[in-house]
Amino acid sequence: MTVLAKATVLVVLLVEVTIGAEALQDIPEFLHICQVQQPQYETCVTNSINDLKPYLKVGVPEYHIPSLEPLKLKTISASPSNSLTMHANDINVYGASNFEINKIKMDLTNIVFNVDVALSNIAIDGKYEVDGKILLLPIHGSGPLSGNFSECIGACKIKGERFFDENGVEKIRIIDFRMKISVGKGSIKLDNLFDGEQVLGDVVNSAINNNFQLFMREFSPLLEMALSDAFQDIADKIIQQFSFSQLFPGA
């Protein structure tokens, strides 16, 4: 082999090593990894996630962890019934980092995780468009949206899959994230209903808040869809920086 050929092979090997090194992040000190075979593994995972909350609140850009205060949601649209169409955008959620994990169940064979979380209080603001009927009342308008929700319970079912990336490293990705939410108490305000007609707007807002649980049956699917999409995107970006064996040693 000529000197030039040897040099070429060496360069190629160095490039491959560099690419492989850049494909994985080192596990950061703030992310406590639990050994799969250790006793009370799920309790360890719960504690590890709870320890992450201060970092989730402010974000860690170098590990693709965004700040959850506020959590910014994408545009969402839904027609929960034949008589109602709702759109919301520029939504900010405050208080998402103050979650408490009530229960976690992990099935690493099928890569299915079930997580129950509690949120004492969350607030939202954003913009809305609505047209149709809510609680048998006609409703039409667009403008600012704000709300406060307390005693919130979230049930998350997360489905993942193992795969090999372009460098042959086995990783995990999230292929489905479903969240169901129940709200104990709350209030919501839709400004500029009926093109700013104050009396009609006050009547509808009052009816919504006097029948809050009925309204949430219409509004919850929008919030669940937006939160599920946001958390799937965040979680997927974080976990794909690491190999499966880094995240689940002993599995």
Q: Count structural domains.
A: 1
CATH superfamily annotation: TULIP domain
Which segments are poorly predicted (pLDDT under 50) over 5 or more consecutive residues? 1-23
The assigned CATH architecture is Super Roll
The shape is elongated
The helical percent reads 25-40%
CATH topology: Bactericidal permeability-increasing protein, domain 1
> Counting H and I runs of at least 4 residues, what is the number of helices?
5
Query: How many strands, what sense, and barrel or not for the largest sheet?
Result: 7 strands, antiparallel
Tell me the structural class: alpha+beta
Can you count the beta strands? 7
Give the amount of beta strand, in percent: 35-45%
Mean pLDDT: 86
> What is the class in the CATH system?
Alpha Beta
Distance between the termini: 44 Å
Rg estimate, integer Å = 23 Å
Order of helices and strands: HHEEEEEEEHHH
List keywords for this structure.
seven-stranded antiparallel beta sheet; 5 helices; 33% helix; 251 residues; alpha+beta; Bactericidal permeability-increasing protein, domain 1
Brief synopsis:
This protein is 33% helix and 40% strand. It contains five helices and seven strands.
Please describe the topology of this protein:
Layout: H1 3-23, H2 41-58, E1 71-73, E2 76-81, E3 84-94, E4 100-107, E5 112-134, E6 137-164, E7 170-190, H3 198-210, H4 212-239, H5 244-247
Antiparallel strand pairs: 1-3, 2-3, 3-5, 4-5, 5-6, 6-7
